[in-house]
Design goal:
The strands form 3 sheets. Strands 4-3-6-7-10 form a 5-stranded mixed β-sheet. Strands 2, 5, 8 and 9 form a 4-stranded mixed β-sheet that branches. The chain has 8 helices and 11 strands. With 303 residues, the protein is α/β, with parallel strands linked by helices. Helix 6 (224-254) packs antiparallel against helix 7 (257-268) and helix 7 (257-268) packs antiparallel against helix 8. A hairpin with a 2-residue loop joins strand 6 (146-156) and strand 7. It is rod-shaped, with a radius of gyration of 41 Å. The protein has helices at 2-11, 15-20, 47-71, 80-89, 190-194, 224-254, 257-268, 276-287; strands spanning 39-41, 96-103, 114-121, 124-131, 137-143, 146-156, 159-169, 179-182, 185-186, 207-211, 295-297. It has 2 domains: 47-71 and 230-297; 92-218, Immunoglobulin-like, CATH 2.60.40.1120.
Length: 303
């Protein structure tokens, strides 16, 4: 009996099952798919991003051409004197200095040559005068930045020779409170003055003039160092354009929108003629935020 009970206990229904009438359920493993696909960011740039990249290359070209214009001050759409003159319009009064040396036609300093400076101050003509020292040196202070007429009077051999030029006084730089203009003058010889007609129509006159102001209306004399700064700015624009081009190519190859956005920011500072690069650079920067993000399945190979 004991053996039979043991057999029933091992092979037959459990005691609890006999009481409840329920059999122990048979367990089986079941698998189900949720159709979820694991994805990763697409390393390839969206076509819209490529279009923005091409647009940025065009903007960088505008910035480079603008820099080339600055780097060639004797030609181009904008000249150094025009650039400096625009800055002088907003400069404070009495913030310009004007200095230099007056030489004769043989290169010797002229002592006691008188310089007369006159400029228009909102319809009122102001003037200042000074004589050169023994070294031909002169130094004016507290002048207004901008355009002025400079007449140099030299008395020699009973004649009074007047040499006139149109000069642009530099405004203060960003880090300086005073604008400095240094220009040296070479007075033509007496023979050159003798060939000029007298202002009163006479055959001979005691006061002789060589007036270059009419030919300097478009491009007056200016400090050579101001032109050098202008050229330096041009090379800076070209450098920014090349850097922006490099970032754009990098972004198009790597598919990085962040790098593309950086290229747009750099292209903004290329300025361009009439600020075209600035305007287009802002537009390109905004468009980078509209580039859709794409994802590919984890199982798909990068293309």
């Amino acid at each position: 009996m004991a053996d039979a009970d043991s057999t029933d206990s091992a092979d037959g229904p459990d005691y609890i099952d006999e009481l409840t009438g329920l059999a122990e359920p048979t367990q089986s493993l079941m698998f189900s798919s949720s159709n979820t696909i694991l994805t990763k960011p697409d390393p390839n740039m969206h076509p819209m991003g490529h279009a923005i990249g091409v647009f940025l290359l065009f903007i960088c070209l505008l910035g480079f051409l603008n820099g080339a214009d600055y780097a060639t001050p004797n030609s181009g759409l904008v000249r150094p004197d025009e650039f400096v003159y625009r800055l002088s319009l907003t400069a404070p009064d009495e913030t310009a200095t004007f200095r230099g040396v007056v030489y004769d036609h043989e290169g010797q300093p002229l002592e006691n040559a008188t310089l007369y400076i006159s400029w228009d101050d909102n319809g009122i003509w102001n003037s200042s005068e000074m004589q050169t020292d023994s070294n031909g040196f002169f130094n004016f202070e507290r002048l207004d930045p901008g355009l002025a007429r400079v007449d140099i009077l030299v008395e020699r051999d009973g004649y009074r020779d007047v040499y006139s030029n149109r000069v642009l006084f530099s405004p203060p730089a960003i880090i300086e409170p005073i604008g400095f203009t240094t220009i040296d003058f070479t007075i033509p010889s007496q023979e050159d003055f003798a060939q000029e007609p007298c202002s009163n129509g006479a055959d001979e006159c005691k006061i002789r003039y060589i007036d270059l102001t009419e030919g300097q209306m478009d491009h007056p004399l200016m400090d050579p160092s101001a032109s050098s700064i202008y050229v330096t700015i041009g090379f800076a624009f070209m450098g920014l354009a090349l850097i922006g081009t490099g970032f754009t190519v990098w972004a198009m190859k790597s598919g990085s929108i962040a790098v593309l956005r950086t290229a747009a920011g750099i292209s903004f500072f290329g300025m361009g003629h009439y600020y075209t690069a600035c305007c287009f650079g802002i537009l390109a920067f905004v468009l980078t935020f509209a580039v859709p993000k794409r994802y590919v399945p984890m199982s798909e190979e990068f293309r």
